[in-house]
Amino acid sequence: MNADLARLRMLAGVAIWALHFAAIYGFTAVACARRLPGPVPLAVALATLVAAAACALIVIAELRKPQGFESWMTGGLAALALLAIVWEAVPVVVVTPCQ
After folding, report:
1. At what angle do helices 3-10 and 69-94 cross, to 10 degrees?
2. Which residues of 46-58 are buried (b: 16+ CB within 10 A; e: fewer)?
3. CA 19 to CA 50: how far, in whole Å?
4. Whole-angstrom Cα distance, residue 15 to residue 12?
């Protein structure tokens, strides 16, 4: 496999986490600036489900492959990204948005 492609594959989970982070906090900021907190919990929940599913699929795919450093690193980073994605969604459950 091409070395550049392997590096990109390893960082897929981290990229998904970064996109999730930017999406939920960006959407929340815009919604709060426009005084429309209603759709924030639903939007964050949907973004979290999509991002968590994508990371879970990466982890499952890497567990099915022959174990090597690249596979281990890709699955491990995706698992950590999955944990971070869930952790980012917790404030929506605990705190009322836009307060």
Report:
1. 30
2. ebbeebbebbeeb
3. 11
4. 5
CB 20 within 8 A of CB 88: yes
Q: Residue 15 is encoded by which pair of tokens?
A: 């990229």
Rama region for 97: left / alpha / beta (φ>0; ψ in -120 to 50; rest): beta
Evaluate whether 95 touches 28 at the Cβ level (below 8 Å).
no
CB 81 within 8 A of CB 14: yes
Count CA within 13 A, CB hemisphere, residue 99: 7
Q: How buried is residue 73: exposed, middle or buried, by Cβ count under 10 Å (0-12/13-18/19+)?
A: middle
Burial class for 82, CB neighbours closer than 10 Å (0-12, 13-18, 19+): buried
Tell me the whole-structure pTM to 2 decimals.
0.89
pLDDT tens per residue across span 66-93? 888 889 999 999 999 999 999 999 988 7
